[in-house]
TrEMBL record:
Residues 16-79 form the DUF4190 domain. Keywords: Membrane, Transmembrane, Transmembrane helix. InterPro entries: DUF4190 (IPR025241). The chain crosses the membrane at residues 15-44, 65-87. This is DUF4190 domain-containing protein. It comes from the Bacteria. Pfam families: DUF4190. The keyword Transmembrane applies.
Amino acid sequence: MSSTKAPSTTGRINVLAIVAVALAVIAFSGIWFFGVGILATFAVGAGHVSLNQIKRKNERGRSMAIAALVLGYGLATWALLNVLTYIPVALQQMSS
């Protein structure tokens, strides 16, 4: 019988994953109050880079990076749908 071992992690948490989660949380909470939803873009970028670093350096923090990606892409989707709903209104006002 051959035993397959799960790859061991170094015990270090990827710092960029922490940054990505922080940016996503700030963007999510700030979009309602301060209009800092643009930080979601940086959260997505940092999330993707941290996933690559985690895989390459065998670090921890994968679930944090994925959470940042989910929040970042969720905010981006919400913003896109929000803009698309205002296009007909803007076109109607321009034609009046």
